[in-house]
Amino acid sequence: MNFSLFRQRSFALLIFSEATSLFGTYFLNAALALYVLKLTGSPEKFASILALGMVPYLIVGPIAGVLADRFNKKKWMILLDVLRGMLCISLFVFSWTETISLPFIYFTVLFISTCEICYGPVFISLLPSIVKEEELVSANSFEKTINETMKIMAPFLGTLVYSLVGIGPVLLVNGFTFMISALAIFFMALPKVDSVIARQLHLFKDMWDGFKVFFIDKRITSIVSNAFLTHFFMYPFILLGFPYIIVTVLGGKGTDYGIVESISTIGSILAIFTVPPMKKFGVANNIGIGILGMCVPVIPLLFLGHPDFIQLLKDNEYYPVLFFGLISFLLFLAFSFYLVFFASFYQTVVPRELFGRYGAGMMVLNGLGRLCGFLIFGYLFSLDSLLYAVIFFGIGMTLKIVVHIPFMSMTKKLEQQQKQVV
Protein backbone atom coordinates (compact mmCIF):
# COMPACT_ATOMS: atom_id res chain seq x y z
CA MET A 1 0.00 0.00 0.00
CA ASN A 2 1.06 3.58 -0.67
CA PHE A 3 2.22 4.86 2.74
CA SER A 4 3.42 8.11 1.16
CA LEU A 5 -0.23 9.24 1.26
CA PHE A 6 0.28 10.14 4.92
CA ARG A 7 2.79 12.78 3.90
CA GLN A 8 -0.21 14.73 2.62
CA ARG A 9 -1.37 16.71 5.66
CA SER A 10 -5.01 16.93 4.61
CA PHE A 11 -5.29 13.18 4.04
CA ALA A 12 -3.63 12.36 7.36
CA LEU A 13 -5.85 14.81 9.28
CA LEU A 14 -8.97 13.57 7.49
CA ILE A 15 -8.23 9.98 8.49
CA PHE A 16 -7.41 11.04 12.06
CA SER A 17 -10.61 13.07 12.32
CA GLU A 18 -12.79 10.25 11.06
CA ALA A 19 -11.07 7.62 13.18
CA THR A 20 -11.40 9.69 16.36
CA SER A 21 -15.03 10.49 15.73
CA LEU A 22 -15.87 6.88 14.86
CA PHE A 23 -14.16 5.58 17.98
CA GLY A 24 -16.34 7.78 20.15
CA THR A 25 -19.47 6.96 18.17
CA TYR A 26 -18.97 3.19 18.41
CA PHE A 27 -17.99 3.59 22.06
CA LEU A 28 -21.35 5.30 22.65
CA ASN A 29 -23.45 3.12 20.33
CA ALA A 30 -22.45 -0.14 22.00
CA ALA A 31 -23.24 1.23 25.46
CA LEU A 32 -26.40 3.00 24.32
CA ALA A 33 -27.75 -0.21 22.77
CA LEU A 34 -27.52 -1.96 26.15
CA TYR A 35 -28.90 1.07 27.99
CA VAL A 36 -31.92 1.39 25.69
CA LEU A 37 -32.52 -2.37 25.68
CA LYS A 38 -32.52 -2.28 29.48
CA LEU A 39 -35.02 0.61 29.55
CA THR A 40 -37.39 -0.83 26.95
CA GLY A 41 -37.15 -4.56 27.61
CA SER A 42 -38.55 -5.65 24.23
CA PRO A 43 -37.11 -5.98 20.71
CA GLU A 44 -40.02 -4.05 19.18
CA LYS A 45 -39.56 -1.00 21.45
CA PHE A 46 -35.81 -1.18 20.99
CA ALA A 47 -36.33 -1.33 17.23
CA SER A 48 -38.66 1.70 17.30
CA ILE A 49 -35.93 3.82 18.91
CA LEU A 50 -33.37 2.64 16.35
CA ALA A 51 -35.88 3.41 13.60
CA LEU A 52 -36.40 6.90 15.05
CA GLY A 53 -32.79 7.67 14.26
CA MET A 54 -33.54 7.13 10.58
CA VAL A 55 -36.31 9.76 10.41
CA PRO A 56 -33.90 12.73 9.92
CA TYR A 57 -32.38 10.87 6.97
CA LEU A 58 -35.73 11.11 5.20
CA ILE A 59 -36.58 14.70 6.25
CA VAL A 60 -33.19 16.43 6.17
CA GLY A 61 -31.47 14.07 3.73
CA PRO A 62 -32.86 15.55 0.49
CA ILE A 63 -31.34 18.99 1.24
CA ALA A 64 -28.17 17.77 3.03
CA GLY A 65 -26.33 17.18 -0.24
CA VAL A 66 -27.29 20.59 -1.56
CA LEU A 67 -25.98 22.21 1.62
CA ALA A 68 -22.78 20.15 1.35
CA ASP A 69 -22.14 21.41 -2.19
CA ARG A 70 -23.05 25.05 -1.42
CA PHE A 71 -21.36 25.83 1.90
CA ASN A 72 -17.78 25.94 3.08
CA LYS A 73 -17.12 22.28 3.80
CA LYS A 74 -14.53 22.93 6.47
CA LYS A 75 -16.69 25.29 8.54
CA TRP A 76 -19.74 23.06 8.07
CA MET A 77 -17.94 19.95 9.40
CA ILE A 78 -16.44 21.80 12.36
CA LEU A 79 -19.86 23.21 13.32
CA LEU A 80 -21.53 19.78 13.20
CA ASP A 81 -18.77 18.16 15.25
CA VAL A 82 -18.88 20.90 17.88
CA LEU A 83 -22.69 20.72 18.17
CA ARG A 84 -22.60 16.96 18.70
CA GLY A 85 -19.77 17.28 21.18
CA MET A 86 -21.58 19.94 23.19
CA LEU A 87 -24.74 17.83 23.35
CA CYS A 88 -22.93 14.75 24.66
CA ILE A 89 -20.94 16.73 27.24
CA SER A 90 -24.14 18.50 28.38
CA LEU A 91 -25.89 15.15 28.85
CA PHE A 92 -22.94 13.95 30.89
CA VAL A 93 -23.29 16.95 33.22
CA PHE A 94 -27.06 16.37 33.40
CA SER A 95 -26.51 12.72 34.37
CA TRP A 96 -24.82 13.83 37.62
CA THR A 97 -28.16 14.73 39.15
CA GLU A 98 -30.84 13.20 36.92
CA THR A 99 -31.52 9.96 35.11
CA ILE A 100 -31.27 10.06 31.34
CA SER A 101 -34.78 8.88 30.51
CA LEU A 102 -36.28 7.82 27.18
CA PRO A 103 -37.34 11.35 26.11
CA PHE A 104 -33.69 12.46 26.36
CA ILE A 105 -32.66 9.38 24.40
CA TYR A 106 -35.22 10.27 21.71
CA PHE A 107 -33.87 13.81 21.44
CA THR A 108 -30.25 12.65 21.40
CA VAL A 109 -30.91 10.06 18.70
CA LEU A 110 -32.76 12.59 16.53
CA PHE A 111 -30.17 15.36 17.01
CA ILE A 112 -27.10 13.20 16.34
CA SER A 113 -28.77 11.56 13.34
CA THR A 114 -29.61 15.00 11.92
CA CYS A 115 -25.98 16.06 12.28
CA GLU A 116 -24.77 12.83 10.70
CA ILE A 117 -26.97 13.23 7.62
CA CYS A 118 -25.63 16.77 7.17
CA TYR A 119 -22.04 15.68 7.84
CA GLY A 120 -21.96 12.53 5.71
CA PRO A 121 -22.30 14.04 2.20
CA VAL A 122 -19.53 16.53 2.97
CA PHE A 123 -17.18 13.83 4.17
CA ILE A 124 -17.95 11.55 1.20
CA SER A 125 -16.96 14.33 -1.19
CA LEU A 126 -13.63 15.09 0.50
CA LEU A 127 -11.47 12.00 -0.09
CA PRO A 128 -11.62 12.11 -3.94
CA SER A 129 -10.78 15.82 -3.82
CA ILE A 130 -7.57 15.49 -1.78
CA VAL A 131 -6.00 12.38 -3.38
CA LYS A 132 -5.33 11.44 -6.99
CA GLU A 133 -7.68 9.04 -8.80
CA GLU A 134 -5.00 6.34 -9.03
CA GLU A 135 -4.52 6.58 -5.26
CA LEU A 136 -8.20 6.04 -4.36
CA VAL A 137 -8.02 2.28 -3.75
CA SER A 138 -5.01 2.71 -1.45
CA ALA A 139 -6.65 5.70 0.27
CA ASN A 140 -9.86 3.75 0.84
CA SER A 141 -7.87 0.78 2.14
CA PHE A 142 -6.01 2.99 4.62
CA GLU A 143 -9.22 4.65 5.69
CA LYS A 144 -10.91 1.31 6.36
CA THR A 145 -7.84 -0.19 8.09
CA ILE A 146 -7.30 2.68 10.52
CA ASN A 147 -10.96 3.23 11.25
CA GLU A 148 -11.64 -0.47 11.82
CA THR A 149 -8.60 -0.61 14.09
CA MET A 150 -10.09 2.17 16.18
CA LYS A 151 -13.35 0.22 16.35
CA ILE A 152 -11.74 -2.93 17.76
CA MET A 153 -11.55 -1.64 21.30
CA ALA A 154 -14.37 0.91 21.20
CA PRO A 155 -17.39 -1.45 21.57
CA PHE A 156 -15.77 -3.49 24.32
CA LEU A 157 -14.59 -0.41 26.21
CA GLY A 158 -17.99 1.24 25.73
CA THR A 159 -19.86 -1.71 27.22
CA LEU A 160 -17.25 -2.09 29.97
CA VAL A 161 -17.42 1.57 31.03
CA TYR A 162 -21.21 1.46 30.89
CA SER A 163 -21.30 -1.70 33.04
CA LEU A 164 -18.98 -0.12 35.62
CA VAL A 165 -20.07 3.54 35.83
CA GLY A 166 -23.20 4.00 33.70
CA ILE A 167 -24.06 5.92 30.56
CA GLY A 168 -22.86 9.39 31.69
CA PRO A 169 -19.09 8.87 31.34
CA VAL A 170 -19.67 7.16 28.00
CA LEU A 171 -21.35 10.33 26.75
CA LEU A 172 -18.41 12.40 28.03
CA VAL A 173 -15.91 10.33 26.03
CA ASN A 174 -18.03 10.64 22.90
CA GLY A 175 -18.31 14.39 23.40
CA PHE A 176 -14.54 14.83 23.57
CA THR A 177 -13.98 12.71 20.46
CA PHE A 178 -16.25 15.01 18.46
CA MET A 179 -14.29 18.03 19.74
CA ILE A 180 -10.97 16.42 18.78
CA SER A 181 -12.37 15.63 15.34
CA ALA A 182 -13.37 19.28 14.89
CA LEU A 183 -9.84 20.37 15.86
CA ALA A 184 -8.28 18.07 13.26
CA ILE A 185 -10.56 19.44 10.55
CA PHE A 186 -9.61 23.00 11.57
CA PHE A 187 -5.98 22.33 10.54
CA MET A 188 -6.90 20.74 7.19
CA ALA A 189 -6.36 22.54 3.88
CA LEU A 190 -9.39 21.76 1.71
CA PRO A 191 -10.06 22.72 -1.92
CA LYS A 192 -12.37 25.71 -2.24
CA VAL A 193 -15.78 25.54 -3.94
CA ASP A 194 -16.69 28.11 -6.58
CA SER A 195 -19.14 30.17 -4.53
CA VAL A 196 -20.48 31.99 -7.62
CA ILE A 197 -21.59 28.74 -9.22
CA ALA A 198 -22.92 27.52 -5.89
CA ARG A 199 -25.18 30.57 -5.53
CA GLN A 200 -26.70 29.92 -8.94
CA LEU A 201 -27.90 26.45 -8.00
CA HIS A 202 -31.60 25.89 -7.31
CA LEU A 203 -32.60 23.93 -4.23
CA PHE A 204 -35.16 21.50 -5.68
CA LYS A 205 -33.28 21.06 -8.95
CA ASP A 206 -30.13 20.26 -6.99
CA MET A 207 -31.99 17.71 -4.87
CA TRP A 208 -33.33 16.01 -7.98
CA ASP A 209 -29.87 16.06 -9.60
CA GLY A 210 -28.58 14.03 -6.68
CA PHE A 211 -31.14 11.28 -7.26
CA LYS A 212 -30.67 11.36 -11.05
CA VAL A 213 -27.05 10.33 -10.57
CA PHE A 214 -28.34 6.89 -9.55
CA PHE A 215 -29.52 6.29 -13.13
CA ILE A 216 -26.74 7.70 -15.30
CA ASP A 217 -25.07 4.28 -15.39
CA LYS A 218 -26.54 0.80 -14.84
CA ARG A 219 -23.58 -0.01 -12.64
CA ILE A 220 -24.37 2.92 -10.32
CA THR A 221 -28.01 1.80 -10.18
CA SER A 222 -26.78 -1.67 -9.24
CA ILE A 223 -24.49 -0.58 -6.40
CA VAL A 224 -27.10 1.87 -5.07
CA SER A 225 -29.62 -1.00 -4.97
CA ASN A 226 -27.02 -3.16 -3.25
CA ALA A 227 -26.39 -0.49 -0.62
CA PHE A 228 -30.12 -0.20 0.05
CA LEU A 229 -30.38 -3.96 0.61
CA THR A 230 -27.42 -3.85 3.00
CA HIS A 231 -29.14 -1.21 5.12
CA PHE A 232 -32.55 -2.88 4.87
CA PHE A 233 -31.40 -6.37 5.87
CA MET A 234 -27.86 -6.58 7.27
CA TYR A 235 -27.54 -3.55 9.54
CA PRO A 236 -30.92 -3.97 11.30
CA PHE A 237 -30.25 -7.68 11.82
CA ILE A 238 -26.89 -6.93 13.45
CA LEU A 239 -27.65 -3.72 15.35
CA LEU A 240 -30.95 -4.98 16.70
CA GLY A 241 -30.53 -8.74 16.67
CA PHE A 242 -27.07 -9.23 18.13
CA PRO A 243 -27.53 -7.30 21.40
CA TYR A 244 -31.07 -8.66 21.81
CA ILE A 245 -30.07 -12.31 21.29
CA ILE A 246 -26.84 -12.17 23.29
CA VAL A 247 -28.12 -10.21 26.29
CA THR A 248 -31.87 -10.86 26.44
CA VAL A 249 -32.41 -14.29 24.83
CA LEU A 250 -29.17 -15.97 25.97
CA GLY A 251 -28.74 -14.00 29.21
CA GLY A 252 -25.18 -12.90 28.40
CA LYS A 253 -23.30 -9.93 29.81
CA GLY A 254 -23.12 -6.53 28.18
CA THR A 255 -19.40 -6.99 27.66
CA ASP A 256 -20.12 -10.17 25.67
CA TYR A 257 -21.86 -8.02 23.08
CA GLY A 258 -18.94 -5.56 23.17
CA ILE A 259 -16.45 -8.38 22.53
CA VAL A 260 -18.49 -9.63 19.56
CA GLU A 261 -18.55 -6.11 18.12
CA SER A 262 -14.78 -5.90 18.47
CA ILE A 263 -14.24 -9.30 16.82
CA SER A 264 -16.18 -8.09 13.79
CA THR A 265 -13.61 -5.33 13.41
CA ILE A 266 -10.77 -7.84 13.23
CA GLY A 267 -12.48 -9.34 10.20
CA SER A 268 -12.75 -5.87 8.65
CA ILE A 269 -9.05 -5.20 9.15
CA LEU A 270 -7.93 -8.51 7.69
CA ALA A 271 -10.14 -7.87 4.67
CA ILE A 272 -8.11 -4.79 3.81
CA PHE A 273 -4.94 -6.85 3.37
CA THR A 274 -6.68 -9.05 0.79
CA VAL A 275 -7.43 -6.06 -1.42
CA PRO A 276 -4.02 -5.49 -3.15
CA PRO A 277 -3.60 -9.04 -4.53
CA MET A 278 -7.26 -9.14 -5.60
CA LYS A 279 -7.23 -5.89 -7.61
CA LYS A 280 -6.21 -7.83 -10.74
CA PHE A 281 -9.68 -9.46 -10.86
CA GLY A 282 -11.41 -6.12 -11.38
CA VAL A 283 -13.98 -4.12 -9.44
CA ALA A 284 -17.07 -5.99 -10.67
CA ASN A 285 -15.71 -9.44 -9.79
CA ASN A 286 -14.43 -8.33 -6.40
CA ILE A 287 -17.74 -6.73 -5.44
CA GLY A 288 -19.39 -10.02 -6.39
CA ILE A 289 -16.90 -12.02 -4.32
CA GLY A 290 -17.63 -9.79 -1.33
CA ILE A 291 -21.38 -10.28 -1.70
CA LEU A 292 -21.04 -14.06 -1.94
CA GLY A 293 -18.88 -14.00 1.18
CA MET A 294 -21.58 -12.08 3.04
CA CYS A 295 -24.04 -14.90 2.32
CA VAL A 296 -21.86 -17.55 4.03
CA PRO A 297 -22.60 -16.55 7.69
CA VAL A 298 -26.33 -16.98 7.08
CA ILE A 299 -25.88 -20.77 7.08
CA PRO A 300 -24.71 -21.22 10.72
CA LEU A 301 -27.28 -18.63 11.85
CA LEU A 302 -30.03 -21.06 10.81
CA PHE A 303 -29.16 -23.16 13.89
CA LEU A 304 -30.70 -20.39 16.01
CA GLY A 305 -34.09 -21.77 15.00
CA HIS A 306 -33.49 -24.98 16.98
CA PRO A 307 -34.31 -24.89 20.74
CA ASP A 308 -31.54 -27.38 21.55
CA PHE A 309 -28.94 -25.10 19.98
CA ILE A 310 -30.26 -22.11 21.94
CA GLN A 311 -29.97 -24.16 25.13
CA LEU A 312 -26.43 -25.17 24.18
CA LEU A 313 -25.46 -21.51 23.89
CA LYS A 314 -27.05 -20.80 27.27
CA ASP A 315 -25.19 -23.65 29.00
CA ASN A 316 -21.75 -22.05 28.61
CA GLU A 317 -21.06 -18.33 28.99
CA TYR A 318 -18.32 -18.48 26.33
CA TYR A 319 -20.39 -20.12 23.60
CA PRO A 320 -22.42 -17.01 22.62
CA VAL A 321 -19.23 -14.98 22.25
CA LEU A 322 -17.57 -17.70 20.18
CA PHE A 323 -20.59 -18.28 17.95
CA PHE A 324 -21.53 -14.66 17.30
CA GLY A 325 -17.88 -13.67 17.18
CA LEU A 326 -17.32 -16.14 14.32
CA ILE A 327 -20.45 -14.92 12.51
CA SER A 328 -19.36 -11.28 12.87
CA PHE A 329 -15.82 -12.07 11.77
CA LEU A 330 -16.93 -13.80 8.56
CA LEU A 331 -19.60 -11.24 7.77
CA PHE A 332 -17.39 -8.19 8.14
CA LEU A 333 -14.42 -9.88 6.47
CA ALA A 334 -16.56 -10.11 3.33
CA PHE A 335 -18.38 -6.81 3.82
CA SER A 336 -15.26 -4.69 4.24
CA PHE A 337 -13.62 -6.30 1.21
CA TYR A 338 -16.76 -5.49 -0.79
CA LEU A 339 -16.91 -1.94 0.57
CA VAL A 340 -13.41 -0.94 -0.59
CA PHE A 341 -14.21 -1.75 -4.23
CA PHE A 342 -17.74 -0.36 -3.87
CA ALA A 343 -16.37 3.02 -2.73
CA SER A 344 -13.52 3.06 -5.24
CA PHE A 345 -16.00 2.51 -8.08
CA TYR A 346 -18.44 5.33 -7.35
CA GLN A 347 -15.60 7.73 -6.51
CA THR A 348 -14.31 7.35 -10.08
CA VAL A 349 -17.69 7.33 -11.89
CA VAL A 350 -19.89 9.88 -10.11
CA PRO A 351 -19.22 13.48 -11.32
CA ARG A 352 -17.26 15.28 -8.63
CA GLU A 353 -19.50 18.33 -8.63
CA LEU A 354 -22.36 16.00 -7.62
CA PHE A 355 -20.56 14.07 -4.88
CA GLY A 356 -22.37 15.87 -2.06
CA ARG A 357 -25.81 15.40 -3.60
CA TYR A 358 -25.05 11.79 -4.54
CA GLY A 359 -23.92 11.14 -0.97
CA ALA A 360 -27.07 12.70 0.45
CA GLY A 361 -29.24 10.68 -1.91
CA MET A 362 -27.51 7.52 -0.79
CA MET A 363 -28.00 8.42 2.86
CA VAL A 364 -31.72 9.09 2.30
CA LEU A 365 -32.17 5.77 0.53
CA ASN A 366 -30.12 3.89 3.11
CA GLY A 367 -31.96 5.62 5.94
CA LEU A 368 -35.27 4.51 4.45
CA GLY A 369 -33.89 0.97 4.25
CA ARG A 370 -32.83 0.95 7.90
CA LEU A 371 -36.11 2.50 9.04
CA CYS A 372 -38.14 -0.25 7.37
CA GLY A 373 -35.63 -2.92 8.35
CA PHE A 374 -35.66 -2.02 12.05
CA LEU A 375 -39.44 -2.13 12.20
CA ILE A 376 -39.69 -5.46 10.36
CA PHE A 377 -36.89 -7.14 12.31
CA GLY A 378 -38.31 -5.75 15.56
CA TYR A 379 -41.51 -7.64 14.81
CA LEU A 380 -39.69 -10.79 13.64
CA PHE A 381 -37.49 -10.96 16.74
CA SER A 382 -40.58 -10.70 18.94
CA LEU A 383 -41.96 -13.95 17.49
CA ASP A 384 -41.50 -17.32 19.17
CA SER A 385 -38.55 -18.36 17.00
CA LEU A 386 -35.40 -16.55 15.86
CA LEU A 387 -35.56 -18.52 12.62
CA TYR A 388 -38.01 -16.04 11.05
CA ALA A 389 -35.52 -13.19 11.37
CA VAL A 390 -32.64 -15.35 10.10
CA ILE A 391 -34.57 -16.48 7.01
CA PHE A 392 -35.55 -12.88 6.22
CA PHE A 393 -31.89 -11.89 6.57
CA GLY A 394 -30.91 -14.71 4.19
CA ILE A 395 -33.42 -13.49 1.61
CA GLY A 396 -31.82 -10.06 1.72
CA MET A 397 -28.32 -11.41 1.16
CA THR A 398 -29.58 -13.44 -1.80
CA LEU A 399 -31.18 -10.35 -3.33
CA LYS A 400 -27.79 -8.60 -3.14
CA ILE A 401 -26.43 -11.25 -5.52
CA VAL A 402 -29.36 -10.74 -7.90
CA VAL A 403 -29.01 -6.94 -8.14
CA HIS A 404 -25.25 -7.27 -8.79
CA ILE A 405 -25.88 -9.18 -12.03
CA PRO A 406 -26.53 -5.99 -14.10
CA PHE A 407 -23.23 -4.57 -12.82
CA MET A 408 -21.37 -7.69 -13.99
CA SER A 409 -23.18 -7.67 -17.34
CA MET A 410 -22.49 -3.98 -18.02
CA THR A 411 -18.84 -4.30 -17.03
CA LYS A 412 -18.34 -7.26 -19.35
CA LYS A 413 -19.98 -5.35 -22.18
CA LEU A 414 -17.73 -2.31 -21.67
CA GLU A 415 -14.62 -4.52 -21.57
CA GLN A 416 -15.58 -6.12 -24.88
CA GLN A 417 -16.12 -2.69 -26.45
CA GLN A 418 -12.69 -1.56 -25.26
CA LYS A 419 -11.08 -4.65 -26.79
CA GLN A 420 -12.79 -3.96 -30.12
CA VAL A 421 -11.49 -0.38 -30.11
CA VAL A 422 -7.93 -1.59 -29.45
UniProtKB/TrEMBL annotation:
It is a multi-pass membrane protein. It is found in: Cell membrane. It comes from the Bacteria. Pfam families: MFS_1. The chain crosses the membrane at residues 12-37, 49-69, 228-251, 257-275, 287-306, 318-346, 358-380, 386-407. Keywords: Cell membrane, Membrane, Transmembrane, Transmembrane helix. InterPro entries: MFS (IPR011701), MFS_trans_sf (IPR036259). This is MFS transporter. It comes from Paenibacillus solisilvae.
